[in-house]
Amino acid sequence: xxxxxxxxxxxxxxxxxxxxxxxxxxxxxxxxxxxxxxxxxxxxxxxxxxxxxxxxxxxxxxxxxxxxxxxxxxxxxxxxxxxxxxxxxxxxxxxxxxxxxxxxxxxxxxxxxxxxxxxxxxxxxxxxxxxxxxxxxxxxxxxxxxxxxxxxxxxxxxxxxxxxxxxxxxxxxxxxxxxxxxxxxxxxxxxxxxxxxxxxxxxxxxxxxxxxxxxxxxxxxxxxxxxxxxxxxxxxxxxxxxxxxxxxxxxxxxxxxxxxxxxxxxxxxxxxxxxxxxxxxxxxxxxxx
Length: 289
Known about the structure:
There is one protein chain. The protein has two domains: 3-54 and 69-87, no CATH class; 121-285, Ribosomal Protein S7, CATH 1.10.455. Helices cover 46% and strands 7% of the residues. It has nine helices and two strands; from the N terminus they run H-H-H-H-H-H-E-E-H-H-H. It has helices at residues 3-16, 29-46, 70-87, 121-130, 136-152, 178-189, 216-232, 243-256, 262-275; strands at 193-203, 206-213. A two-stranded antiparallel sheet has the order 1-2. The protein starts with a helix and ends in a 14-residue tail after the last helix. Residues 118-277 form the Small ribosomal subunit protein uS7 domain. This is Small ribosomal subunit protein uS7m. It comes from Podospora australis.
């Protein structure tokens, strides 16, 4: 045995036999109990044992982790980590989630998980349309006030003559989800087409009107522009920076209830598109294709 181990073994045996310096001051009862436990632990260590004895009146579950050997501590930590994974509903023996609390994300990461796309698409688009002079924070505050107004609004009374979009829930559920409230109002009055004008192609210097389909983002942009124009023409009921968001929210409620003038604009665009749909077959358009 190396000399250092012999010295350590001799010191442990001497400590176990109680060969210590005399103490002039009597130790407290809990100090005597701790000393007895340390002497028993040293005696066990000198006899090449691995687990110390438990002092009288103390449970094994309250032992400090430093009293266990290093390899036994690592085993306990691994076991506890496996149990935590089971508690979170993960497979503790799966290599892909080993060492991760919630598992690894699937690659490639979709674009909607990017920080720039953390808001709803409709809310993000309408906020940008509300923005003036690059003041995005003010537009976000206005959108927050609009959604808060829709959340506290009463159940809308629908007009059967002006039905909402197909995915709209029951009217009593609309105030519970203000984002859905906003999306339903915009998609319900969003036009399906726009009228394009080709100058001088109708003869006599007149423009040739041709209906053209709109993409989803274009439809929503046009509808919200109509809503903002209608809200701007309303009289304010007070003063302050909250008045315009409240007028916009009132116009959105009027759209859902079928009382807004935005419905008339949508009807006029579709009516005009139906009237000029014959111009799609004009031979002069083929030269532009």
